[in-house]
Specification:
About 20% of the residues lie in helices and about 20% in strands. It is of the alpha/beta class. The protein has an eight-stranded parallel sheet with strand order 11-10-9-8-7-4-3-12. Helix 3 packs parallel to helix 4.
Amino acid sequence: MQLSSSRTPLFSRLGLAFIVTSTVTIAVMLASLIVSFAYSEQTLPGNLVQQRAANRQHTTTTPRERAFRDVGLQMFQWPWNDIAHECRTSLGTMGIRRVLISPPHENLNIPTWTSSYAPVSYRLDSKLGTRNELRRMVETCHAHGVDIIADAVMNHMAPAIPPFRGIAGSTFHRYSYPGIYTSADFHHCQLTRDGVLHTYFDRGQVQQCDALGLPDLDTGSPHVQQVLHTYLRDLLSVGVDGFRIDAAKHISAADIAGILSVVPADKFVVQEVIIGLDEPIHPQEYFRNGRVFDFAFAGVAKDALHYGDLAGLFSAGAEQGLLPPSQAVPIVTNHDFERDVNLLTYRDGWAYHFTTLLMLATQHGSPFLYSGYAFDSRDQPAPSTPAGLVATPRCAPNLLRPQVGQFLCVQRHAAYRTMVKWRYRAMSGTLQPRHNHTSDIPVLATARIIWRQPGVVALMRNGLLFVANWSGHSVKIPLSPGQTDSTSLISLHAGRVELDDALLTVPQGDIVVSMRKAH
């Protein structure tokens, strides 16, 4: 969860894409901000209909095969039992390497999604399931070759909002969390008159002051680190394979290193560090602790569509503000971005899905897809029971026109399943050396661009074709004899492949891939 309340720029090759980061405020938690959105009138093509994945056998993969799977999926506000079901029926066979789950701690019992980022205790009983359900989900996903990454909220505790009670019954008051923390375990920032963060240009304020009502833990103190060590060890004991460090920018890199000292180096870690223009805190400070979400990629990718330079996305790097690929976890959206940022989200219809599929063809880091739910007010919770537990998700039958409360179950749709498999087959067969908490780093085969024009790119990776067309009109791409296996061509949007001799016609908005090398 992003705790910034300032506008934070993302660097882009063709300009700056600004993002407005979010926080849990008392007012926001008590009343939703109503926003109306217009849904796309497009319909899904025939080959993007929801699949009925019936394979419930264990997914058999060797360690080497799993090493070359690098695509993650954030399953935002999905209950544990339902994630287990998806591992059995879709995620394992799709080839997803890791799933990022929402925070598993006991959450503040109020009707907003933000309550997941308001810890009351570190009991593994939340609105998404019990400790036993979490453990069984992890075991099920492991049986199908899928790792589980837990979202760890360690910068702060729940704000003092009535009824001062967690979903599992724990009670608290501001700066007092019985059996866990007392007032002495918080920063009580003296850098501002009210102890609240006012500027992101002061490192001390960012990492010591309360961000709008969230009690800021003294993460450098021995007692706090000991408590967090116990929490992380507990999560490891139920089998999780790594952690997302929420609000990492608000914790010093040294404090995070101390907190992670009990986590084995082969566990995956990704940190939330927002890039801010001329701010003193930078993602590079956190590389020693693991990977970092590359939020700038979302802005660069949006610009690639807007300015018609799809080919440029395949050579984008540090000059566009991107992080080193070995440390980067690129995304197009997440739970914060789709609510607070003027970048691509499900409300943009096919443009959003097109860009996400395009991300899977790039060599920039290990990408994360996103599965959340449609909403019409910012803090609207996922559909829940009267007791505050999140209900079983209802998947939108049409990804382009989800109804409010329906989940976008990208893992069940053919275009996403095809591109994840394409990416796996396009690997070069080599791994970069593993760094601390980075896990395996597979290397995609070098992209050889065979055709480019405004809004169009065609390339080869490991003998596999990838063509994307966002030009506004159909294009014809000449293919050389024996270049790829033309019988394995798949259209991800139009639903048909038109190949006349060696001339491939790709409609506007379509992506065409080949799934086999030429024989």
